[in-house]
Design a protein that fits this description.
mainly alpha, 2 domains, 7 helices, flat
Length: 203
């Protein structure tokens, strides 16, 4: 067991193996849908969407609830460990989690037949389907958050962390911009999750 848990790669592989076992147990059920059923694709992309979202929002909340509030408490000589090692690695999973979440979410919406209804906030149905409005609000908030990650937060973080060459006086401004948009995404993540969950459970 230690050989699995002391290696992140082995831990992740073991997690996928356990998920596969659960899936095989499901297939053993005579009422299970088969490999040619659209519901299998819907399930698969929903699973990937949720897993990607956990990676994305987990890192977003790590930055905003843990790293940013505690940076001032870290002695100056220790801060390079965060800015040169921890933050770049966390930002890698953060931004790719965002990309995977938006891509799998769009595929999932398409497979479920509500992509246009959701992105038009139910306008195509005369705003008569509350579920379309709810999931659409969640999708638009998620899309805005994804845009912020890739086109505002990440470019500014590259400057702030010295990943790209920039004048020294540009770093504080870039760091503040990245922080403010990260906080914006934290704010939006709460109603976004509410809208997504409500669409599946209230309507």
């Amino acid at each position: 067991m230690a050989a699995i848990l002391t290696s992140l790669r082995n831990t992740v592989i073991a997690g996928f193996v356990l998920a596969l076992v659960l899936f095989l147990l499901y297939l053993a059920n005579p009422d299970a849908f088969g490999f040619t059923d659209i519901r299998l694709s819907q399930f698969f992309f929903r699973w990937l969407h949720v897993a990607s979202g956990v990676m994305w929002i987990g890192h977003l909340w790590y930055f905003n609830f843990t790293q940013i509030p505690n940076m001032a408490k870290i002695p100056d000589e220790q801060k390079p460990a965060i800015s040169k090692v921890i933050a770049p690695a966390a930002l890698y999973w953060f931004r790719h989690g965002a990309m995977a979440t938006i891509v799998t979410g769009i595929i999932l919406a398409y497979l479920n037949g509500y992509l246009l209804d959701a992105y038009t906030l139910g306008a195509l149905n005369g705003f008569a389907v509350p579920k379309d409005i709810a999931i659409g609000i969640g999708m638009w908030l998620g899309t805005i958050m994804w845009f912020n990650v890739w086109f505002i937060i990440w470019p500014n973080q590259k400057i702030a962390l010295g990943i790209v060459d920039a004048p020294a006086d540009a770093k504080p401004k870039a760091a503040r911009t990245a922080m403010l948009f990260s906080r914006t995404n934290t704010l939006l993540s709460i109603p976004m999750l509410f809208a997504m969950v409500s669409a599946q459970n209230i309507y």
